[in-house]
Specification:
Order of helices and strands: EHEHEHEHEHHEHEHEHHHH
Structural class: alpha/beta
Number of strands: 8
Radius of gyration: 18 Å
Distance between the termini: 30 Å
Largest sheet: 8 strands, parallel
């Protein structure tokens, strides 16, 4: 079975103006995602700024999310990536221990590795937490390396490597992966809000979305329309969402989502930890105008 089908949200991490984590604001944000009916929440993903928080902070945030999602239909995916395999193993063991539903592991960045190294890296993490489903995360725009299709196929044979989040924005690549893994128990999730319709139409099980931080209910509705094959309604909604998704990434993620959610009144501050830096008023206007236009559609 898939870890989830539908819309997962790559959650932001609210902070105060001084850079401290706003834990109460984070809890409110998690609750809004649950109330919005999303299928899954991702804690400590890229959008949650794990590069500039401590491992102790990551642990606390994961425990909060697991506790809040108990008894709900919302699955918990915990970020567990590192460019140090030993650290990724430690994270996998922790995520399994506290009860996450899946472990999201990005490819090693900066030092990177070979495709043979990727296979060894992912197998070592999977073996360290054999009862925890592992979702590979393919985002070459951030890591500088792409998971080759042959590598995906090899790793899909590992029992608890169950899926991949693909942020290549390359539908041809997705089609090749789907074709090559069609007889394996392996799923794909989009990591790009601008391609959900074609991605799911091709066979993907959903999206791990940034836009859902703003519109959890609407993104869940949109993804479900795609899964249900209601192409007419899904196409209309995709077009209505397009400018929002586009301008959410006009600056480095999660700069724009935080500005948007502050604009909506759901968090106190759009603060980030450096080297991330607030966006311009011009960029904000582009996004806020797109949001206004979408909200007038009345979904």
């Amino acid at each position: 079975m898939a870890v989830f089908e539908g819309c997962g949200v790559a959650m932001i991490l609210p902070m105060f103006d001084n850079g401290d984590i706003d834990y109460e604001g984070f809890k409110k944000h998690v609750q809004r995602m649950i109330d919005g009916g999303v299928s899954a929440v991702l804690v400590n993903g890229t959008t949650g700024e794990p590069a500039t928080i401590t491992w102790e902070d990551e642990q606390e945030l994961t425990k909060i999310v697991v506790d809040m999602c108990k008894g709900t239909k919302t699955k918990v995916i915990a970020g567990g990536g590192s460019n140090n395999t030993a650290v990724a193993i430690e994270k996998a063991k922790f995520n399994a221990k506290v009860g996450a539903d899946a472990n999201l592991v990005v490819t090693p960045y900066y030092n990177k590795t070979s495709q043979r190294g990727l296979i060894a890296h992912y197998k070592a993490i999977a073996e360290a937490a054999p009862d925890l489903p592992l979702i590979m995360y393919n985002v070459p725009g951030r890591t500088g390396m792409k998971i080759a299709v042959d590598t995906v196929v090899e790793l899909a044979k590992v029992p608890n490597i169950v899926a991949m989040k693909d942020a290549t924005d390359d539908i041809a690549y997705e089609m090749e992966v789907l074709t090559r893994t069609r007889d394996l128990d392996f799923d794909l999730y989009s990591g790009c809000d601008d391609n959900v319709l074609p991605f799911v139409a091709a066979g993907g099980k959903g999206v791990i979305s940034v836009t859902a931080n703003l519109y959890p209910r609407e993104m869940q509705l949109f993804t479900q329309l795609c899964l249900d094959g209601d192409l007419a309604k899904a196409r209309e909604m995709a077009l209505d969402l397009n400018d929002v998704s586009k301008f959410l990434f006009i600056d480095t993620n999660p700069i724009m989502p935080k500005a948007a959610i502050k604009h909506m009144g759901y968090i106190e501050s759009e603060a980030l930890r450096m080297p991330l830096y607030p966006t311009t008023d011009e960029n904000k206007k582009l996004l806020f105008d797109a949001m206004d236009a979408f909200e007038k559609k009345g979904y």
